[in-house]
Amino acid sequence: MGLRFLFHTPVYKPAVAAGPVYSVSSLAEHLVKAGHMVTVVTANIDPATGMLITRQTEDKICGVNVHYCPLVPRAFQALFPWLRRQDLFRFGGDFRVWVRGALAECDVMHNHLPYAWGNGPASVLAKRFNKVVIYSQRSSFLPQFLPKNAYMKRMYISLVERAVLEKSDVLIALTTEEVHAYRRLGLKNRIEILPNGVDTSTCEATEIKSSESILKFLSRLNGSPFILWMSRIEPRKGLDIFLDAFQLVGKIEPDLHAVIAGPDQKNLLVALLNKYKDSKIGHRVHYAGILSGDDRYYALMSANMLVLPTAGEGMSNVLLEAMASGCPVITTPQAYFPEIGSSKAGLIVDREPKAIATAIKFLSNLSNEARKEMGVQGKKLVLENYNWTTIASRYARLCEELVGKSNRSKML
Fold it and tell me: Which CATH number among 3.40.50.1110, 3.40.50.2020, 3.30.420.340, 3.40.50.2000 corresponds to the domain 4-197+387-411?
């Protein structure tokens, strides 16, 4: 008989709010495929759009049981506007009563994102029921996201989140940098590295079922080579650096196009594109909108390279997807993915336009065979180390060990 998991996360499908939705749901779905039972408790709002998720309170998505809670602002948030973040809202709908009942039927409770209000009540109740508690930071405590002058975050960690962290049986880190981030907070808990992954079934398929919309979009390029930037459109993802680098390259590569894909939650895209509208590269910069499913893989397989000049990542899903698709990548040291360079799957360069432009020119001047070999190395790296089937199996083995220890301690 498989294990029974309760995942607590402030955002889940069908929300489109970027990486955590994909990584949490992928882990949950692969655990279900392996014979385990997973229940998710989450909010009924998609932070990417601010829209209510109009599903039933109880639903089932890809075999995963999902319970949606309404979000309720807390009293102090009316007084302090800068604290009106949705992840600090209280879960309504008798959250504690529901979690108490769910915990009676589970072995492991996992808090998947810091700062969420429900982390505290869920971990307290889990410990009361002698359940295994696991915690993921998903890059939130890295220096880029928790600088020394982040006084409000650090105060919240000291007053609220630290107790949740210290109650956890295991802290999950995506990379060694996240291990260091936990230790800088003075935490003594056991830490295990468990990276993000990709669903390899799509990238290994003989035929990608791309939509008419992506085929129509790419047909506008008339077969010209293009470089791809795909992520959330926000400052730390480096779209401005990507465009500045493309402007430098575009002057000497007249046939090269740039394609942008991703949600524009902060309405930054128009201002960025207007900067280049009247330049010589303006007509060669294209926005593909939000790409999902097979369309993402089709775009990655069609691109000459993916460029992500990020200022910080836990573990970038799009870098994994690009390599799984056989697409060479260019990124920065702040992606915390040194294997890209050591496996010769791409280039890691400084986060500034000239360095990015030099890397783009280098890859563009390679033969098709040389770029294809980089893609082969990237695909090999991901398939061997970052596929969800393997990662879910490692996670399940860890939890089986923890549950076994917990059960033995109850008998003493």
Answer: 3.40.50.2000
